[in-house]
Amino acid sequence: MSRTSRRRAVLEHPAPEEIDLFDVLHALSDPTRMTIVRTLSTEPERACGTFPVDVAPSTLSHHFKVLREAGLIHQREEANRRLTTLRAAELDERFPGMLTAVLGAYERSPGAR
Amino acid sequence: MSRTSRRRAVLEHPAPEEIDLFDVLHALSDPTRMTIVRTLSTEPERACGTFPVDVAPSTLSHHFKVLREAGLIHQREEANRRLTTLRAAELDERFPGMLTAVLGAYERSPGAR
């Protein structure tokens, strides 16, 4: 397949009302995914290869997929980059205060620093 | 083995400082375990067979084990009953506000009612 005809993967995101609490909690129950979420919590948007995590690209890709399908992050493609944002406002509307409380708990965890 | 010499399973509980955030989040990422936690959140202590969940005893036993090892519940044996309590105060000391926020999120979920 030529470079120009290569189709990009369709990035599916759940609508806010489809976000499932158990999917969110599962997504947050992994240290790498939590690091991604915490990193995004203080930034507007970030390119995929620039997160402070030490995992193989395929593993990182899986973690982004879990986070995206759970409704925690939004991803879009721009030129040759995939840009990621935290869906903080939507999550806070659906589950008020929860993400903030979980991130606060993470700050108190030994592995957070 | 005679009834009187039957040894009870040792119920191990992590110390408060050993409670791991990712274990807690994983434990809460299941509907049956969430139901157990929510039920306990409004009661001081409850016998194992009396929770409003519809799963096989062996499955229920597994869920209690996950919750206990994560540090969410405490279990003790008394006569022929195993009694369970939520470690709400210890959890709140370790991760302030988190369990309350997660339970609040659950109340807003479609499956909660």
Automatic annotation (TrEMBL), chains A, B:
Residues 13-106 form the HTH arsR-type domain. CDD domains: HTH_ARSR (cd00090). Pfam families: HTH_20 (PF12840). Keywords: DNA-binding, Transcription, Transcription regulation. One of its GO terms (molecular function) is DNA binding. PANTHER family: TRANSCRIPTIONAL REGULATOR, ARSR FAMILY, TRANSCRIPTIONAL REGULATORY PROTEIN. This is Transcriptional regulator. It comes from Streptomyces malaysiense.
